[in-house]
């Protein structure tokens, strides 16, 4: 069970992740962002159909609306799964498009424990940006290419891990 200390630590980690994303955006250099799009209309309609069977409805397809629905249906594991599956999958990207679920304009995994490859990429990029003044165009191109490949690989590996977990 989470207590106030857990919630405070989690909030600090979220803020640190946003600050890391803001920093690399400011530097106009390569980075890996955790991005999350809004759910598609098709998924929203499917969810509304399921919810209707349980006399529930999604008042507003906003992050706040989803949070309220999740809170209201927390006793129904089936609905909780249906709600989560209606959302777009978050993934890693070298291009920042924001994080719908967290309602952040920019988000990068940065905080410990560093357990994902994308965390490591963000740490390496921040280290380079903080401790070097290398503005070499060739290095920037390499960083950008490296981040793009890391994003693609990490998103694929994450999906494989999720499928294995479900199996």
Characterise this structure:
The chain is mainly α and 167 residues long. The protein is 61% helix and 4% strand. It has helices at residues 4-27, 41-53, 63-72, 77-86, 117-131, 137-166, and strands at 33-35, 91-93.
Write a compact overview of the structure shown:
The chain is mainly alpha-helical and 167 residues long. Helices cover 61% and strands 4% of the residues.
Please give a handful of descriptors for the protein shown.
single chain; 167 residues; mainly alpha; two-stranded antiparallel sheet; 6 helices; 2 strands; 61% helix; elongated
List the helices and strands and how they pair.
Layout lengths: L3 H24 L5 E3 L5 H13 L9 H10 L4 H10 L4 E3 L23 H15 L5 H30 L1
Antiparallel strand pairs: 1-2
Helix pairs in contact: 1-5, 2-4, 5-6
Strand content: under 5%
Q: Mean pLDDT, nearest integer?
A: 87
Number of strands: 2
- Distance N terminus to C terminus? 26 Å
Could you estimate the helical fraction of the residues in percent?
Answer: 55-70%
Radius of gyration: 18 Å
Strand order of the largest sheet: 1-2
Order of secondary-structure elements:
HEHHHEHH
Number of helices: 6
Could you describe the largest sheet, including whether it forms a barrel?
Answer: 2 strands, antiparallel
Form type = elongated
Could you name the ranges where pLDDT drops below 50 across 5 or more consecutive residues? none
Structural class of the helix and strand makeup? Answer: mainly alpha
